[in-house]
Write a structure and sequence with these properties.
Elements: H1 2-18, E1 21-23, E2 32-34, E3 53-55, H2 56-61, E4 70-75, E5 92-96, E6 101-103, E7 118-121, E8 124-127, E9 156-158, E10 163-166, E11 171-174, E12 183-185, E13 217-218, E14 223-224, E15 231-240, E16 245-255, E17 266-272, E18 278-283, E19 289-291, E20 300-302, E21 321-323, H3 324-329, E22 338-343, E23 360-364, E24 369-371, E25 387-390, E26 397-399, E27 404-409, E28 416-418, E29 432-437, E30 445-448, E31 456-457, E32 461-468, E33 473-475
């Protein structure tokens, strides 16, 4: 008792003399300077400053509390987190900030709220939670980047599988969290199955929405020239057969030749099938089109699927079939257009169809339809009528003229008939000439220029026909 009284007196005199209080300290360095009785060593006697201890109800009941007053709340089962005690949610040290009691030290984080994509858990602010306002992340540059790293399927997603990243296989799925290949869109059989590339602009431009399929040899960092036989790109069409997806059709582009810096010969072909697609149509780098033919040699080169054997499948080209009426109704028909007129019961045999008198193949000459082929055309007869040339009696020699058909000699002596090559061309092939001897004397005419013999014909005797083959004269019969 005596010792305590001396301490109090010492404190009092110290405060009076210096306006500073020292506890266990005769030279206080501040308003209140407390020195531990045993600052070192293993002494078990408690040291420290014991702040007033109250429960939450008591803290919330105080009035006219000076700012910076410190207490220790030792019980929060009483009172409520409201009023001046709104921040008191755990046992601990609190100070009064002039409005409410505020948590001190590590526990003071409880006074911080977290929202708009952030949550507060055990005093820690964590990423995760609902956005409550529009949020902008700006300032991203080549150095100030925003990156996500992860492993596993669906490592990053938006709204379930609306957008999903497979970080293990480096794939992206839309409508699926298990994409096949680098990128897959899975729909439900409606409009969400569609994929659009839309290009807009206010001025005329050659640019449009485009899909590029690119191929190189080498690596992405060091691409190299492609090789003959390389597939540039493919579009595959798969159908589910009840147990798996099958490739049933495809459009492919393949290098078909030796590439160089200025030339990469490329073919485009279409394949269809029931199990494994088979090439059906090809357009080569020269612009030739082949059907059932992977090496078209002309503008259009159609090959039979089965050129030999007893296969019953139909091969051939089926020309458009129309009626005579339909053929007559066509306008601005290009020259050489080919059709098969299947019936002539409709329309009239006039105008553009003036030559259409039976079913068959016809082509347009730009004005009318012309019959094509011998079997479909009406018989054409050669006009064999010509000039009958009766020679004067004084004639002893005569050279056949292109206008001659029948030559009659009437002289009293023999007449020499010459069949020339001059004046006759290949276009005159089939020209025929007959010679009749009506000489007054019983003498025979003679002939020259005949390739297959020397001939004479006696009085009152016809001979011929002589025929021009296009290059020479021959006697057909004697």
């Amino acid at each position: 008792m005596k010792k305590q009284l001396l301490t109090i007196l010492a404190v009092s005199f110290s405060g009076i003399a210096f306006a500073q209080v020292g506890i266990n300290n005769t030279t206080p360095a501040s308003t209140l300077d407390i020195t531990a009785k045993a600052a070192t060593g293993a002494t078990t006697t408690p040291e420290g400053l014991l702040i007033p201890r109250v429960d939450r109800q008591r803290a919330g009941s105080m009035t006219s509390v000076p700012t910076s007053t410190m207490i220790y709340v030792n019980d929060i089962s009483t009172g409520s987190a409201s009023g001046t005690a709104v921040n008191i949610d755990a046992v601990g040290f609190y100070y009064y900030n002039g409005v409410a009691w505020t948590k001190m030290g590590a526990g003071s984080a409880a006074a911080v709220t977290a929202n708009n994509g952030l949550t507060l858990a055990s005093g820690n602010i964590q990423l995760g939670g609902a956005l409550t306002q529009p949020t902008l992340i700006s300032g991203l540059t080549a150095t100030n980047t925003l990156a996500f790293t992860g492993t596993g399927n669906n490592a990053f997603s938006v709204d379930g599988n609306t957008f999903s990243v497979d970080a293990t296989n480096h794939s992206i799925g839309i409508g699926t969290s298990a994409p096949n290949g680098r990128f897959e869109i899975v729909g439900t059989g409606g409009a969400d199955d569609d994929f659009y590339l839309t290009s807009n602009g206010t001025t005329s431009s050659s640019f449009a929405a485009s899909l590029f399929l690119r191929r190189s040899a080498g690596t992405p960092a060091a691409p190299a020239i492609v090789r003959n036989g390389d597939t540039v790109g493919e579009m595959n069409f798969d159908a589910y057969n009840g147990s798996s997806y099958l490739h049933v059709a495809k459009i492919s582009s393949v290098i078909n030749g030796t590439p160089s810096a200025g030339s990469v010969p490329t073919d485009l072909f279409l394949s269809t099938g029931t199990l494994t697609p088979v090439e059906r149509l090809r357009i080569n780098s020269a612009g030739n089109v082949g059907i059932a033919n992977n090496a078209p040699a002309a503008t259009l080169d159609v090959a039979a699927k089965a050129a030999t054997g007893t296969t019953t499948g139909v091969d051939g080209v089926l020309i458009p079939r129309v009626t005579r009426e339909r053929a007559a109704s066509m306008t601005s028909v290009p020259v050489s257009t080919l059709v098969y007129i299947s019936e002539v019961a409709t329309g009239a045999q006039s105008g553009a169809t003036a030559n259409v008198d039976a079913a068959g193949f016809y082509y347009s000459d730009g004005s009318v339809w012309q019959k094509l082929g011998g079997s479909s055309a009406a018989p054409v007869y050669q006009n064999i009528r010509g000039n009958v040339n009766t020679l004067p009696t004084s004639t002893t020699s005569y050279t056949v003229q292109p206008s001659d058909y029948t030559i009659v000699t009437t002289a009293s002596t023999a007449v020499t008939i010459t069949f020339p090559t001059a004046g006759f061309t290949a276009a005159d092939a089939g020209k025929t000439v007959y010679v009749y001897n009506d000489n007054s004397a019983a003498v025979g005419n003679s002939f020259s220029g005949i390739a297959n013999g020397v001939l004479t014909n006696n009085q009152y005797r016809g001979i011929g026909p002589f025929m021009w083959t296009g290059s020479k004269w021959i006697i057909v019969s004697k």
